[in-house]
Design goal:
single chain; alpha/beta; Rossmann fold; DNA polymerase, domain 1; 44% helix; 11% strand; globular
Amino acid sequence: MNQLEVIIFDVDGTLADTEDIHRRAFNRAFKEFELDWNWTPKLYEELLAISGGGERITYYGADLVEHFRQPDAFEHFVRDLHEVKTNIYAEMLNTGEVPLRPGVERLLNEAREAGLTLAIATSSTFSNLKTLLDRNLPENWMSWFSAIATCDIVSRKKPSPAVYQSVIDILKIDPAHGIAIEDTVNGCVAATSAGLATVITTHFFTRHHHFPNAALVLDSLGEPDHPFRLIQGDAGAHDLVDVALLEHIVAERNEHVQDTAQWEAGIHVATA
């Protein structure tokens, strides 16, 4: 069977355009630690190739390691700095308006009405996720998702498929019946490596990136009065991402896989 059963969402940059909020929170944290670091939008776009805030700090601050006398002192520094940044980020979300991206809530509601399973797979923390969705969805939003995997429970960050594999294992599903919604190259690699068809919605920091294995690359999920802009792939007559389009993507991908398997089997028999 080729039907769609599960939609798995990334969070930062996918559910909401939070990446620049993260960038500004990092810079505020750097000031509190009296660091002369300044992550500009251009630099942050490059740093997004590294999944995880702590991992970005570790990479960027590698030259500081020699200034710490104890072997684990730098790790403690990174952890403390990232904790301050996380608190600043939550404060910024709570005091400002960070809406969901176009089409997100519409698609969530359509999927629930269609009886599809929803899940979340993110390299972010659960606290960041909760702060964001508490502000943008009804109080019972957690009941909407049958599985939520974050970096709090899956330490290996994207592009590792570990966080997606965690969701697949929790739900006990065949990834052939799932689809991921992502926004970064690392996210795309993680999802497709886990066997999921993947739709990419780009934003300022990923608009110039290349996603060779994505089923579709769009500038958003689209709304009836604000259709998406197609960047890569074939969306047919669709101008917004709805359940029907996602079902078509999964069915088409699985038919291609089956046809390829049958062709390879035929070649094997012919040459045996």
